[in-house]
Design brief:
Layout (H helix, E strand, L loop, with lengths): L1 H18 L5 H8 L5 H7 L4 H5 L8 H17 L2 H8 L4 H9 L18 H12 L3 H8 L6 H8 L2 H12 L5 E4 L15 E9 L2 E16 L6 E9 L10 E10 L5 E3 L12 E12 L13 H12 L3 H23 L1 E2 L2 E2 L4 H29 L5 H26 L1 H4 L8 H12 L4 H16 L4 H8 L4 H31 L14 H25 L7 H26 L7 H25 L3 H11 L11 H9 L6 H6 L11 H14 L1 H9 L5 H6 L5 H18 L6 H4 L9 H14 L1
Parallel strand pairs: 1-4, 2-4
Antiparallel strand pairs: 2-3, 3-7, 4-5, 6-7, 8-9
Length: 755
Amino acid sequence: MSFRRDNITKPIFSWARGVLPAMSDTEREALEAGDVWWDADLFTGNPDWTKLLKVPPARLTDEEQAFLNGPVDELCAMLDEWKIFWEWRDLPPDVWHFVKREKFFGMIIPKEFGGLGFSPYAHSEVVRKISTRSIAAAVTVMVPNSLGPGELLMRFGTKEQQERWLPRLADGRDIPCFGLTSPEAGSDAASMIDTGIICKGNFEGREVTGLRLNWHKRYITLGPVATLLGLAFKAYDPDHLVGQQEELGITVALIPTNLPGVEIGHRHLPSMQVFQNGPNRGRDVFIPLDYVIGGKERLGQGWKMLMTALAAGRGISLPSLSAAGAAYAARTTGAYARIREQFGISISKFEGVEEPLARIVATAYQLDAARRLTCAALNAGVHPAVISGIMKLHATERMRTAVDDAMDIHGGKAVIDGPQNYIGNLHRAVPVGITVEGANILTRNLIVFGQGAIRAHPYLLDEMNALADTDRERGLTAFDTAFWKHVGHSFRTLFRAFGQSWTFGAFAMAPDAGDATPFYRQLSRYSAAFALCADMALLTLGGALKRKEMLSARFGDILSELYLLSAALKRWQDEGRQKEDFAALEWCMATGFKTIENRLAEILANLPNRFVAGFLKLVVQPFGARVLGPSDRVVHQCAGIVLEPSAARERLTPDLAHVDDDSGFARLERAFKLVASTDAIAKRMRAAHIRDWKDAIAKGVITQAEGEQLAAAHEAVTKVIEVDDFAPEALSPIYKKSGDVHQFFQELGEQRAAS
């Protein structure tokens, strides 16, 4: 062993130390934050499917279910999205009072501190349901339970801090927000210029050691109404009051917004969404050191704390909202396509409509599968950093596609705004989800694979830590162990990828999963191909791969697909292999396999080392990219899931917020049920070539009762197809004085003529 280390490994070790790019403290802290989970199995090239299938599905407790059926339903009944964003520009006072009283802001806070103590899955389910009724309300509820003071206090706060602040956050006495983004530092939050200088100062009548803070933050959700600001800044100790180091690094602290020097700005209006959001500043704000979350010992540890907390938050809030949006789009668009007729037939019969409708259905199936699987990990105490990035990125991107498809199918119904438009505001809200908690462009190009390649790879992080060890001999020994394990792993992956690619995965490992078994084989095959190509890219490019963003993005796309497809398979298994849902699973698999094969082909076409690229093509893609996507049969069957009342439709779109009022969504649900229940009657009339139900009664084709059913269905459809219109003075103050728009323009014309 020492001969190998000293004569073979040592030259490699010396070379690698010379080419290893320097890693900043923030990069290292981001890498060390959170956990790896199923992503690590996928990176091995030989995933253990038994391990995945044994993960207990996320479930609600009786108490959590009662909260959904009680306070959540009650809250949803109080919400009128049109009035919220058009008239009030805010949640009404009774809603604010209700969410505080019922502890919606304290869902994740333990019961010992006055919170509800709910699981991540319950948090996700609450956000999901509210999202289908009001985006503004959902965001208001999700933020205090995501990245913010509560999460950070629970993980890193001192006992005294927890006892002081958590009860106030739980019952709504304090409304929290978190200030991270600065005008100068958006996605690159580590370059913030907000500062905290350690110094002596007076606080509440006594001299203490503390921090004098100056900051400028923007895009801060709940900022305009917050009473407790969590703040990220860079701490400095020029007078060495706490130690010998002057630059301590990013730190997070609690700032009561009533302190002198805190300036709460006006509101932002993000994409016409009216949840509270705005800028704030601090000018020479003094706080004692015990306002630093975790106390003095946590000075400079803020970035790692934030990344750890974000690993959980990104896996819950936005994926929940996105899964809700996709399910809502599937239910409403399927219903609308079913009841809307053009050229004398339901538009759901047009293949041009079926194709985007199937995409919506399968997206809803896959996103909720991934949401549930991620929540299962979080419920088990795992905080998967890479998977959280995958979830935020792909949940919001796929929601965007689903909502765009819904808009296209609805046509003018979704374009004309008003109280009866049940999808327009969701469409407007999509860019917010794309942008916040890390821009998707950055996440795709730099984070998913850039972080995943190091964290989830079985040996790479160990090798990097060994190379960075200041004790050269200790580092060499550790590197020798990790490196040769890596070599053995690479050769095993090479032979596995070669065999599975040339046999199209026919003999790859897979569980007995009924009709889905072949899908597991293909994922095993693609996992091996991915692991081999990733290893070779890292070997040939080294640290330069970080700068090859398009290559990194393609690798990230493959890793993401492997996770999302795993989640879809897990859902199908957990739900009892429902045959009626199999078309949605098939669509997901065919589309995902197509993406994986295309990304592999793109990687091989652009890998700088052309000899290695040619070798890899021979090994992993000898016949080229062959998967074409879902067949027309699958598209037809997948779209059909939401075109009739069925158990499959309910499984796809469970527990959406539904209030039996006169809203557009409620009208649509009633019309859909009536049209479906009269389908057989309508068919008899079409067979008799009769369009008027009264004529059909007269000719004995249908009964009087059946005719009245048809009339009710027709009336319900007419109410759904209606769109809102407004008096001119209701839309613009210009017309309020004249009261008559025609008179206004006539007078305007006369004035121009006179001039």
